[in-house]
Design brief:
The chain is 28% helix and 25% strand. It has 307 residues and is of the alpha/beta class. The strands form three sheets. It has a six-stranded mixed sheet, sandwiched between helices. The two termini are 27 Å apart.
């Protein structure tokens, strides 16, 4: 596992290209051995203010990775840039070896599914309607969903345990049920990589564990690559074995829990005194933070764009 020291000042952090594999990151899963997603020397931000700075990374098939870091560090911006929702001001983003600037939106959606932070769940559409929206990359013009699309939607609803809710309106569902329905919408796209921005936010403990167990199962049984932004480090350590730590627009470290979840790295990134507890075998089981040493300076990303 690679450990990357904080980079000199230079969408987060200067990070030498790393091929992530298996439960760590993923080898190649694109055409001709290309990584599933690759970012080369990428800057990205909002209104001319940079959030990501010269980020380079590669993520392949089978990856199951938690993207962690303080508010405003660039986590959401990285996902938006990776999914072509945000155009980088510098550098290149590749999906399965293809430059996203030359790809159609439907072409991007066949590779990447994106569940945003705090998605709209007060919709009057039924669960089945919402999940069928995920089939748009496979339809053309005004084409209506056909038997293959209905079968894909049913498969996605079954995988996320919302099939029995298919005729319920999304607005009627609990938070956990609505989140599962939105994940089903992405699965109906048949993507190879799922990006999730704080998928457990605003959920109680039981629903948080339910969503994380679902993602773990989709990765283990279907080979779906997962990159998820998480604020709860203890929840992350319960399910993930591979981490990207991002702070100040830079990826500070990448690797397993022992590489990334160290008091020094976390303390520097979060601006707090950190204790990391281990079990008898040396595995990380809990991360504790004491009050910050001093108020953290505002970042370019801020709460408006990055959590």
């Amino acid at each position: 596992m690679a450990r990357v020291a904080p980079a000199a000042a230079g969408t987060p952090g200067v990070w030498e290209m790393t091929r992530l594999t298996g439960s760590g990151g993923g080898g190649s899963d694109g055409h001709d051995g290309a990584p599933l997603i690759e970012m080369r020397d990428v800057d990205a931000g909002y209104g001319g203010a940079p959030v990501l700075r010269r980020v380079s990374l590669a993520l392949g098939g089978g990856s199951f990775t938690a993207l962690i870091g303080p508010n405003g560090g660039g986590k959401s911006t990285l996902l938006r840039t990776a999914s072509r929702m945000l155009r980088p001001s510098r550098g290149t983003v590749l999906l399965a070896g293809n430059d996203v600037r030359r790809m159609s939106q439907s072409g991007v959606a066949r590779i990447v599914g994106f569940v945003p932070q705090s998605p709209q769940t007060d919709l009057e559409f039924t669960v089945e309607d919402v999940v069928l929206m995920g089939r748009y990359p496979h339809l053309s013009g005004m084409q209506r969903p056909g038997p293959r699309d209905l079968a894909a939607a049913e498969e996605a609803m079954r995988a996320t345990a919302v099939l029995d809710l298919r005729h319920r309106r999304l607005a009627e569902l609990s938070g956990g049920e609505a989140q599962r329905a939105l994940i089903a919408r992405c699965l109906a796209q048949k993507p190879r990589l799922l990006l999730l921005d704080e998928p457990t936010s605003h959920l109680d403990l039981a629903y948080q564990v339910e969503i994380m167990a679902l993602l773990k199962r989709l990765n283990a049984t279907d080979g779906l690559s997962i990159l998820a932004v998480l604020h709860d480090l203890n929840l992350a350590t319960q399910f993930f074995s591979h981490f990207l730590l991002i702070s100040g627009g830079r990826i500070v470290s990448e690797g397993g829990a022992d590489d990334v979840l160290s008091p020094g790295l976390l303390g520097e990134a979060y601006g707090a005194d950190i204790d990391v507890l281990h079990d008898a075998a040396g595995g990380v089981i809990r991360v504790l933070a004491r009050p910050p040493r001093e108020p953290r300076a505002a970042t370019h990303g801020g709460d408006t764009h990055d959590g």
